[in-house]
Amino acid sequence: MSKFTIALAGNPNSGKTTLFNLLTGSEQYVGNWPGVTVERKEGLYKKDKEINIVDLPGIYSLSPYTLEEVVSRDYLIDENPDVIINILDATNLERNLYLTTQLMELGIPVVIALNMMDLVDKTGEKILTNELEDHLKCKVVKISALKKTGIDELIEACEKVKDDKVEPLKIFNESIEKYIEDIKNISTKVDYHNSIRWIAVKLLENDEKIIEKIGLDDSEKNKLNGLLNKFEDEFDDDGEGVITDGRYNFVSNITKHIIKNKRSGLSTSDKIDRIVTNRFLAIPIFAVFMFAIYYISIKIGNDILGEWVNGTLIEEIIQGGAENLLVGWGVSAWLVSLIVNGIIGGVGAVLGFLPVIAVLYFFIAILEDIGYMARIAFILDRIFRKFGLSGKSFIPILIGIGCSVPGIMATRTIESDKDRRMTIVVASFMPCGAKSEIIALFAASVFVGKWWFAPICYFAGIAAVIVSGIILKKTSRFAGEAAPFVMELPSYHMPKLGNVLRVTWQRIKAFIIKAGTIILVATIAIWFLQNISTSGEFAEFSAESHSLLEAIGKFFAPIFKPLGFGNWLAAVSSVVGLIAKEMVVSTYGVVAGVGADLTFESPDMIQFASLAFTTVSAMSFMIFNQLNIPCFAAVGAIRQEMKSGKWTAFALIYQMVFAYTISLMIYQFGSVLILGNDFTIWTGVALVILAVYIFLLFRPDKNKIDKRKLSRSID
Amino acid sequence: MTLDNAEVGKTYSVKKINGSGAIRRRIMDMGITKGVELYIKKVAPLGDPVQITLRGYELTLRKQDAEIIEVEEN
Question: Which superkingdom (chain B) (predicted)?
Answer without folding.
Answer: Bacteria
